[in-house]
Amino acid sequence: MALIDIPLSVMLCCVLLLSFTLNLILIRFQNRLPLLDIPNERSSHTKITPRSGGIALFASFLVGIFCSGYIDSLLFLIPVSFVFFVGLYDDMRPLSSKLKLFLTALPAVGLFHMGFSLEHFGTFFGKEIVLSYGFALLFFSFAISGFVSSLNLIDGLDGLASVVSLAILLPFAYMGYKYTDLFLFSITLMLMSSIFGFLLLNWHPSKIFMGDSGSMFLGFMIAIIVVYAIKKEYITAISALFLAGVPILDTLIVMLRRFLQGVHPFKADKTHMHHLILNYHKSIPRTVFILGLLQILFSYIGLGFKVRDDIFIFVLYALVFVLVYSLLTISDKGYKENV
């Protein structure tokens, strides 16, 4: 039941305004919180900046959800809150990458038993792939944790994680509208409103960062929305590779390159897609714009590619992977030769 009976459009505006206001307050009192990002050799910024924006994202989203009454069950907020607080702790006292992966896999197990589960992974060569309970749970936990990590990894430029997240969420808002699915429609727009309020202050030159609390919260929420859409059969599991294409592609390419170079897969470096594009264009807004457009293109492909056999989508994704990998490898070599 809604705490306040107001139209969805008005609620969305209120969430955006609340997100913006909370971020302003966090900027104003930044020195009172142990959540400051101090520039280092990997940073794209040059001044100390608060990384508390995730608090505003999470809080404004919660207020919108509780006040709107458009969601029947709020149990999914328990694992979401757990992931947020793990990210918040990590912002104050950095955790190892392995521990963060484990701590985001745990709430994924909870999600699985709440009904946000996947056992059917599509049709390949005319045969439907159905996983056993144990393997489905293991794969689901790994996939959710991996995606949360992938969105966290692209949060390296002003506005990038926000713009990419908006580009990912847009087609799901459309699905909610198309299929008259109030849960999908309202929760997606509520999350987008929170992001917009933050992005107004996160655009280059950024006055505040979302931190790990924000990127992990967004990654987990997007994962929930994607899984929900798959369960409802609005999309197939394989099409999610395109609908969340930029973070997934970036992580897969970086991990492969590190493996081939004999480097630890969790070792921090500057070989992500946004680093290499920025090295070429020398403009943060332009780099964010390019990756945002790329995600919109991926989303369009994932939303519009209707086939009976998922092998075609998988092959197309593999070809895109090889193409992007080759282009980024050439770009990286050219950059190193000019340094």
Task: Describe the largest sheet.
Answer: 2 strands, antiparallel
Query: How many helices does DSSP assign?
Result: 13
> How many structural domains can be distinguished in the coordinates?
1
Distance between the termini: 60 Å
Shape designation: globular
Point out poorly predicted stretches.
none
How many strand elements? 4
Order of helices and strands: HEEHHHEEHHHHHHHHH
Identify the strand order in the major beta sheet.
1-2
- How large a portion of the residues is in β-strands, by DSSP E? under 5%
Class inferred from helices and paired strands: mainly alpha
| Overall mean confidence score, pLDDT | 88
Radius of gyration computed on alpha carbons: 19 Å
Helix content: 55-70%
Task: Walk me through this protein's architecture.
InterPro entries: Glycosyl_transferase_4, PNAcMuramoyl-5peptid_Trfase_CS. This protein is mainly alpha-helical. The protein has one domain. It is 68% helix and 4% strand. The protein contains 13 helices and four strands. It has helices at 8-28, 53-68, 77-92, 97-113, 133-153, 160-178, 182-202, 211-231, 240-243, 245-260, 273-281, 284-304, 311-338; strands spanning 36-37, 49-50, 120-124, 127-130. The strands form two sheets. The chain has a two-stranded antiparallel sheet with strand order 1-2. A two-stranded antiparallel ribbon has the order 3-4. A hairpin with a 2-residue loop joins β3 (120-124) and β4. It is globular, with a radius of gyration of 19 Å. The chain starts with 7 loop residues before the first helix and ends with a helix.
